[in-house]
Amino acid sequence: MTQDIKELLLRNKKPLLLAVGLVAVVIFFLGSSFLSLVHNKLEMRKLTKQSALLDVQHQELTKKMELLKKQDLDYVEELARTQYNMVKPGEIQFRLTE
Question: Which of 2, 9, 27, 76 is the most exposed place for a label (fewest CB within 10 A)?
Answer without folding.
Answer: 2
